[in-house]
Amino acid sequence: MRSEDIDKTVGESTYRQIRTDIIFGRLAPGQKLRLENLKAAYETSVSTLREILNRLTSDGLVVAEGQRGFEVAGVSVADLKEIAALRLLLEEHALEQSFEQGDVEWEAQLVSAHYKLARMEAVMASGDTSQAEDWKRYDWEFHQALIAACGSKLLMETHSSVFDKYLRYQMVALSYRGGVAEQEHKQLLEAALKRDSKTAKLILQRHIQGGVEHALGKGLLSSPARQAK
């Protein structure tokens, strides 16, 4: 493999790792991203890291501060509400298309994704939050499976990007709503198997709005240090 190909592979892997660390809160909102520190932590060159951070700036997960460098994008109530509204808009549209075009293979994928999510929700309900990242990963997989038959790769990718930002807020607030969210996921599965998009949209609206209200109720977005700049 040519050296430039190796650099590209390493750069992509590091990009995904830093992005994941931001989404799951290991790199906290407002945290300074000093290149020398990142170089040691991710074993990547400064030039590659600079490219990655510029890419994450375009993703809306990092803020470039001119000569002062980079920091993890802050969080705010207004931003959460905007992200939630965009997620709902995308997911409702994709959901309707997916219900119309989904086949038996799609149903099997959806049932499997829900099973994994339900198992992890049971763990969270027991009070064990040590697997919170797995819980949110399975949550992401279920909602992606829900719209997987929509027929649009661009729509799926856009939804995934918005969902990641929504997920970051849930991780910041560790916003697990217990049996309410678990029941909503079950109802979404049932509506999908019946191809009942009208009911599914109503459940999805409650589901996303409930997540926003629960995150806000934790009071972790009100501190000035956490506000988006």
Describe the model.
This protein is mainly alpha-helical and 229 residues long. It has 2 domains: 3-72, Arc Repressor Mutant, subunit A (Orthogonal Bundle), CATH 1.10.10; 77-217, Four Helix Bundle (Hemerythrin (Met), subunit A) (Up-down Bundle). The chain has 9 helices and 3 strands; from the N terminus they run αβααββαααααα. A 3-stranded antiparallel β-sheet has the order 1-3-2. The chain is globular, with a radius of gyration of 19 Å. Residues 223-229 have low confidence and may be disordered.
Provide the descriptors you would attach to this structure in a database record.
9 helices, 3 strands, disordered C terminus, mainly alpha, Arc Repressor Mutant, subunit A, 229 residues, 3-stranded antiparallel beta sheet, Four Helix Bundle (Hemerythrin (Met), subunit A)
In CATH terms, what is the fold-level topology of the largest domain? Four Helix Bundle (Hemerythrin (Met), subunit A)
CATH architecture of the largest domain: Up-down Bundle
Low-confidence stretches: 223-229
Coarse shape? globular
Give the class-level CATH name of the largest domain.
Answer: Mainly Alpha
Spell out the CATH superfamily of the largest domain: GntR ligand-binding domain-like
Strand residue percentage: under 5%
Helix content: over 70%
Strand order of the largest sheet: 1-3-2
Look at the helices and sheets and give the structural class.
Answer: mainly alpha
One letter per element, helices H and strands E, the order comes to HEHHEEHHHHHH
Instruction: Provide the gyration radius in Å.
Output: 19 Å
* Oligomeric description of these chains: single chain
Largest sheet: 3 strands, antiparallel
Mean pLDDT: 89
Number of helices: 9
